[in-house]
Structure prediction request, 343 residues.
Amino acid sequence: MIGNTIAAMLGVTPAVTNSYESISTTTLGSSASSVVFSSIPGTYTHLQVRLSTTASAAANYYCQVNGDTGTNYSWHELYGDGASAASGAAATQAQGYFIYCPSTNPTVAIMDFLDYANTNKYKTIRTLAGQDNNGSGRVELTSIGWRNTNAITSITIYPSTGTFSTNGIFALYGIKG
Amino acid sequence: MASTYTPIATTTLGSAAASYTFSSISSIYTDLVLVANGYITTSAQGIRIQFNGDTGTNYSNTTLSGTGSVAESARDTSGTNARLTYDASWSTTTSDYAQINVSIMNYANTTTYKTFISRANRATSGVDALVGLWRSTSAITSITVFPAANNFVAGTTFSLYGIKAA
Prediction:
């Protein structure tokens, strides 16, 4: 049943039950400029990162995969800032953008790395992320493309400036097909 | 690897109700996911959420919504509850069930305010993404959802899941 629930959330056909597994979690014991999930096994169909963290400064949050710092990322975003809805896009970037955080209250994000181990196609990452500050904030949907056919074996998440704060939780889950 | 995404409680309303509360929520998980599916009596209404029975002005939210003709964003500050829907308000029509899927992240920590993020949809009215803040450092032990007015109808379902990070 739970596998079916997750599969339904992802918009894919459920295949097995009990298919949502915790792979790795980082709970920050001190501030950090990035969080890395490495040595990710290729045994799942999809990956999901769930994060909840504060930060030392207003910042964009980015991800990179497999340590790739080349200009192989692109994204589209749809966001609301409390006043208006807007959309943007960027191509040929060195990282994938998924949220702008204007303040230091907790930012949350759910990031789905779909068919991450497939070696026949480029990868797409979809995210739902937001931060509310009782008067400012943003909620955002993004689609990030990584133009590489390699299986994703590591994920790096980092702010454009400043650091993630102590007690931030970054959890990686695997979803079997 | 340990399987997670554990069902905590599920209810199908046997009769109309003004609200539904998940109480005595264990703190053993990392995140909670609440899934609701239903409709309401009398007139279309937005769905709201409160935590731990707190009716103080400690809630805020930022919304992103689409109606089919307009994309918009709005904000509520210092409210006595937070929205779970905006354009995807719940209907009174039996054939027009609406859904909400809200993740309440790091709900048991006692250091930070609580942030939750939601997706809501009703095919005939709109689609929403929302982020909300409860300005309390208390661990969340109960969750109440309710329409801004009127009642949930019988057959409306509420499910609560726990996700535990290794």
Remarks:
- Residues 6-163 of chain B form a domain with the Jelly Rolls fold (CATH 2.60.120).
- Chain B has no helices and twelve strands.
